[in-house]
Every structure is written in C-alpha cells, then in structure tokens.
Amino acid sequence: MVGGLNGGLNIAHEAADRHVAAGYGAQTAIRWLGKDGSRRELTYGDLAGMSSRFANLLRDHGLQQGDSVYSLMGRVPELYAGAIGTLKAGLVYTPLFAAFGPEPIRTRMEIGSANVLITTASLYRRKIAPFRDQLPSLKLVLVAGDDAPYGCVALGPALKRAGEAFETVQTGAEDLALVHFTSGTTGKPKGVVHVHGAVEYHAYSGRIALGLTPGAVYWCTADPGWVTGTSYGIIAPLVNRVTMIVDEAEFDLEHWYRIIAREKVEIWYSAPTAIRMMMRAGAEAAADYDFSSLRFLASVGEPLNPEAVVWSGKVFGQPFHDNWWQTETGGIMIANLPGMEVKPGSMGKPLPGITAGILTAGEDGLTECGTGEIGELALRRDWPSVMRAYLNEEERFANCFADGWYLSGDLAARDEDGYYWFVGRKDDLIKTSGHLIGPFEVESALLEHAAVAEAAVIGVPDETAGEVVRAYVTLSRGFEPSEDLERDVRAHARKRLGAAVAPRAILFRKTLPKTRSGKIMRRLLKARELGLPVGDISTLESDET
Asked: Hey, where are the domains in the chain?
C-alpha cells in the first residue's frame, strides 16, 4: 500500500525508502544477472542508499526540481539507481532505447530539453558526442564506470563521493515524474507526461493484474527503454516489494528457460514476440527445464494470438494471460486477471475501478456499441496514471479526450460475458467488398498453420473490392518458401475465414518490421506497399523485408 511522504507523494519513496523504514532493508530488491555470467544482489537498503547518492550527485551539480534526466543504457544496476535517484530528487525521468541511433536520441532530447544524460562510454562516443554541442539544455553527462570521456563525469567515483543520506523531495501527486516517448504514425515521436500520483495505480495494477506480492520472484523481460520496462520493470514491482530478476543479456531461448528454472521465477511478464519465438522453437526445446515455480504468466505489447495461449498452457502448465494498456494510460487497464478464466485471444476484462466502453461517433456524439459490435475502445478519464500531456503538443493531447472519455485509437468488441476483444488500430482496419476486417483476426488464423511463425496483414487498394487483404509471413523452422506452400496457407485461411476475408496474396519474408517492444509495424508495410511516407520509425528493431 502506498505510504505517502509527510503529506507528499514521491515514487522513489514508495519504491525504496518506505520498505527500509518498515524493516525490509535486507530483502533482495534486484537480482542482477550480468551477460558475462556474473551475479549481483541489491537489497532494498542498497537501492535506497545508491539512489540517495545519485540524488545528492544531481544536487551537487546544481540540478533542481523539475529538471529532466534521460537514461541511455542497458539493464545495468546504475540504470535502476539512476531512475529512483532522479525521482527522489524531484527531477523528471525519461528512458531511451540503448539501440536507438543518434538521430532519434537527439530528437527526443530536444523535445524534452534534456538536462542530464546517464549512459555508457561506448554509447556516448558513438551516439551522443557527434551532436552534444548542439544541445544547449544538456548540462551533465554521467558515464557508468570509473572512467569517462572528456567533458563527462565518471559515475563510479562520483557516487562514492556523494553522501548516502538524502531527504526525498516532497513532490505532490500532480508533480511531473516521467516522460515516455512513443512513436507517432507521422512526424516526430510523442512525449507522454506522467506524474508522481501514477504510483498509486502502478502499485494497485501490479497487485491485481500481475499478482505481485512481497517477496515474490518476478521477471519482467521488457526493455527498460519501453514504458513497460519502467512501469512494470521498475516501479510496480519495487512498490510491491518483490524480488526482481534483471537480466542484462538479450533474448536467447535456452538462456531464458535456464533463468526461470534456476532462479525459480514465480511471475513472468513478457511479450508476444518472445512467446512466438518459443513456439517456433517447439515444445521440445522446453522439455528439459523445470517450470514448476511459475504461478502466473502475463503478456503485453500487442494482442496475444489464441494459439499462443493454448501452446503456453501445454508447455508451462498454464496459459499466458494477455492484458491491454498504452503508454498514454500509464498502467494496465484490461487484463486476464489471476484466477480468471482465460478466453484465448481476448484481452480480458477491465480492472476493478476502470470503466471501459466500446464507442462509436455519430451526429449526437459518442454512443455505446452493443454486444459484439466493433467500436473504439475508450476509458473513463478517472484513474491516477492517465497521461497529463504530450510535450509541446496541446492540440494533439486534447484530441485524445471527448465527453469524459479517453479515446485509445484501438478498435475492439465486447462479448456477452464482458470480455474485450482487440480488432486493430483504427488506421489498420481493412474495408473490402462491404466487409470490415480487423488484421488481428486474419493473423491469428494464419498462425494456426504449422508453417507460419509470424504474420502481418494489411489492406491494399483494389478497383472492385475497395481493398483486398494481403499477408506477410515468416516461416517456422523446417519450412521453405514455395508456390505450393503459399497456396496451402491461403487455402487454410479461406477455410477458416471465408473467401471474402482471407488474404488474396501471401508474401514470405525473413523477418517482419517490429519495434523493440515487439509490435509489428503494419503501417510500415502498408506505407512501403503504397509508396507513402513511413513516419517515425526510430523504434524499429528488425526489418529485413
């Protein structure tokens, strides 16, 4: 339960110092696994002390409440201490993907007027140094380790010199705490603003949607540059006093399976892309590992296809529980909760206290859709972690709200049992021969074919039908592209979906364009198909199409 701070509210106090004050300073907060095989245990007391040193370091360099601190580094202990120390000092924390190129980094730092950057020597030299002198707002660059390039401060010695006692700034619930960047379909990325009061919902949703309890061993595999890596990879688990597994290495199937078995992971929060990669490797790849410690599995990033839910139930003894939320919501809104019956392919139900609706716009304003009808997924604007702004974009922010609702831009339907089903982004909807087709439905049918590992579906213009469905797929191990296989996959889709909905053409690809958070970028496929501007692709992880 969130404990407050002498009448104020500060995320850092709730995540670290509160537990130390309550006598839990010796409990492990972070079990860090280095990519070189090393291990490090950070207790809540260690985290409180490191973050206080970091806060003192910021103050010693003249930083003030409200200044902005950016992090550009992998999953290393300094990132977690830096995030908590930034918030403890009343500054605003913004994570960046370490895999970003120089231009997307520069764009985000310019939009947010970055004052401090925490990074590594290698990342600084390759990605920051070329344009540092063009960022007048940047006052301080902190570099992990004992040495630093010219003009930077080595974090190791600086933290040793800084004091371990720091009185957490008494921020209020509406004081700025976090800025997360999310890609826009056109133009520059959006800087989504969140406040310290969001911690109340981080704590609540972590308990309700993920089953986080004190002492539980929890592993969130999300990159710390993504909102999930902050909301549910730092804040929610620490506030709920779990023991977090933090793995520095990148995805490797056997490595992940070993971590679950060796560290006795109880709660596992991952992404559909990783789950589909597990499926692609087959159940036999998991056969030698002990997964008996697992008690809850959850997935986020994009909708989880039904076959992935069924597959995980067979391999891990329980299904992955899908949930839905956005950078703008700041926390999980709809979920398949622990103990709830999972309907494969469904996002689940709104968390208690969240009012969701399926809306359509008409002459009389917004109206609720009936059971099974497709409309825009919307939420009543009354939860603590809802975004407070887009940086420097007031009109864009205002357009996200109407009649007391937050309009998500996602299309969905609600069934007779109150479960919500994702259809697609409004811009992804395909209109063909009078039918409205959501890409997720077609992709899920394609994934039922043994040869298909991943699928992305778009609509392309057609003189007769308006649009026709086109699918891009990657193949499972043991299959090679051929005309016969293309016909067989199309036949499977027609049998499952009918001729009006099934893809007219299937194109085989080595990979599909995805963001580092695992979302397939359908709009990029469509833009290339039609020769349109591709918009912001700075979060693109893989693209060998």
From this structure: 11-194, 251-425, 429-542
Please give the structure tokens belonging to residue 513: 């364009």
pLDDT digits (tens, 9 = 90+) for 209-224: 999 999 999 999 998 8
DSSP letters, 384-443, are TTS--EETT-HHHHHTTEETTEEEEEEEEEE-TTS-EEEEEEGGG-EEETTEEE-HHHHH
Token pair listed for 61 = 């360099």
**Domain 429-542 in this protein, CATH class:** alpha beta
Three-state SS annotation for 233-292: HHHHHHHCCCEEEEECCCCCHHHHHHHHHHHCCCEEEECHHHHHHHHHHCHHHHCCCCCC
Fold equal for 11-194 and 251-425: yes
3-state helix vs strand vs coil in the chain, percent to 5: 30, 25, 40
Residues 335, 348: Cα–Cα separation, whole Å: 5
Count of CB atoms within 10 A of residue 264's CB? 14
Q: Which pTM was predicted?
A: 0.83
Structure tokens given for 386: 């809802």
For 351-408, how does the pLDDT look when each residue is reduced to its tens digit (9 = 90+)? 999 999 999 988 788 999 999 999 999 999 999 999 999 999 999 999 999 999 999 9
One-letter amino acid of 108: R
Q: How far is CA 31 from CA 114, 213, 525, in A?
A: 30, 16, 40
Given a contact cutoff of 8 angstroms between Cβ atoms, the answer to whether 115 and 138 are in contact is: yes
Q: What is the pLDDT of residues 253-297, one digit of tens each?
A: 999 999 999 999 999 999 888 898 898 888 999 999 999 999 999
For 251-425, CATH number out of 3.40.50.12780, 1.10.10.10, 1.10.3720.10, 3.30.230.10 equals 3.40.50.12780
